[in-house]
Amino acid sequence: MRFTLIKDLKKDSSIKPMLNGLLVFMLLYFAAEVFVDSSNFGLFYEQVKFTLFGNEENFLEPISEASFLEYIHTKIFFMMMILLTLSAIFIRLTANDTLKLFCLNSVMTSALIMLIALTLSYYIHPFLCIFIL
Prior knowledge:
By secondary structure, the protein is mainly alpha-helical.
């Protein structure tokens, strides 16, 4: 996290390409995360509901509480690390661009809502899965 210590990115010629590369890899991570979530839980309401609570007609077992808690635990950690690093990069590269900061805050808020809604839907009511989409 050397880029958080350098005050002026123009003085260090190697740091800006490294930040751009890190940004590209983070975007690739988010794209891959969509495919991982699609295969683990599903991307739509019915798929997520069947994964969490099972489906007797199709003989699908519900996810165990231990597996669910492990999934949420790792998801919180990776989302925190990726989004905090991403925000530090955006702030360093585009401090004056309010649109990019708005997008970053929207992504952080969406990630937080998704984690809370998924947990509440598992423990309280399946309808809350709708906020995961």
